[in-house]
Amino acid sequence: MNLGPLIIDICGHELSSEDKEVLNHPLVGGVILFSKNFVSKDQIFRLINDIHGCTRGRELLITVDHEGGRVQRFKTGFTSLEAPSAIGNIIVERGFTKKTVSEALAKAYSHGATIAKELVAIGVDLSFTPCLDLNWGRSDVIGDRAISSDPELVAILCLGIITGLRDFGLKNCVKHFPGHGWAKEDSHNTFARDERQLEPILKKDIYPYKYLIGTLNVVSSVMASHVVYEKCDLSPASLSKFWLVDVLRKKLNFKGVIFCDDLSMQGVKIESGLLDLVDVAFSAGCDSLLICNDRSGVLKILNDYPISTVPPGLKKISGLKKELKK
After folding, report:
1. Which residues contact 156 (CB under 8 A, 6 or more apart)?
2. Which terminus of the chain is less hemmed in, N or C, by CB atoms within 10 Å?
3. Which residues pair with 127 in a beta bridge?
């Protein structure tokens, strides 16, 4: 099964005729679901089945941002998950002891397992979690989405989340590579900058990626951030060969799928427009592109971006669809 590289959203609680047409375009490979698509567990289950039913045997990748805390798209009928920071706070508040580490690991595993059991039951394939960003105390958009400011704790406790996800059949996507915790700006709304030199980023922010990818090989996919690390490269990480090829592919030896964060976010806009932005993202090393809450943008890509222009070497998101390998 060959799925296209675009992950798109749908407009409401049910599929419209336009949704069905869009989902059948060969550039589309998956759907990202939001709170706007959710009424109840039964309804979202039916919606996912309807998505598969309308795509003529091409089972699209079904994804969602479901981290816990502020980022939990489905609520009624689902466990109300604490923010990931609650996992790390067990150690922050009571000290680093064998008992607190054990409790935090158990909580991390339970967090991931709960997400997986509830999402797999309705037909979701992948949650864009866990967040490997460090809490530097600077970023409101990250804040309590980060487990800790300690990179080793983030690595170990996110391993617990990933293990829980994997044990109950859900793929993971670690984010926001190489780290969104230092930049004060929210890349949803504006350009976000990290003015640090490369060395502290590699030593601190990259550490959880190095551990989970290079040492343990437990990462299914990575989402690149739209932050500009201006002392390292003048492009956002999501549009940067330096970050995606030189660091993530070559230095960390990552073999899985690289997702570009949402192309409709302000932090990644370029003057020449959306079609050129798609080209730049592919050329930088992204395998799959999200475009959310921008149906006109989706239609522009589907109507005007030549399928033949998609680079042939992309990692296929169809590998995330079935048979849990990582």
Report:
1. 101, 105, 211
2. N
3. 64, 172
Axis crossing angle, helix 98-120 with helix 151-167, rounded to the nearest 10: 40
Q: How far apart, in whole angstroms, are the C-alpha atoms of residue 9 and residue 63?
A: 10
pLDDT in tens, 204-244: 999 999 999 999 999 999 999 999 999 999 999 999 999 99
Residue 82 in tokens: 């604490």
Enter the tokens of residue 37.
Answer: 């698509």
Q: Where are any strands of DSSP class E within 220-267?
A: 221-224, 228-229, 257-260
Looking at the domain 13-320, which fold is it?
TIM Barrel (3.20.20)
Burial label, 250 (beta-carbon count in 10 A; 0-12, 13-18, 19+): exposed
pTM of the predicted structure, to 2 decimals: 0.95
**Which element (helix H / strand E) includes 115?**
helix 98-120
Dihedral, 115, 45, 74, 188 alpha carbons, nearest 10 = 100
DSSP state for residue 231 in the 8-state scheme: T
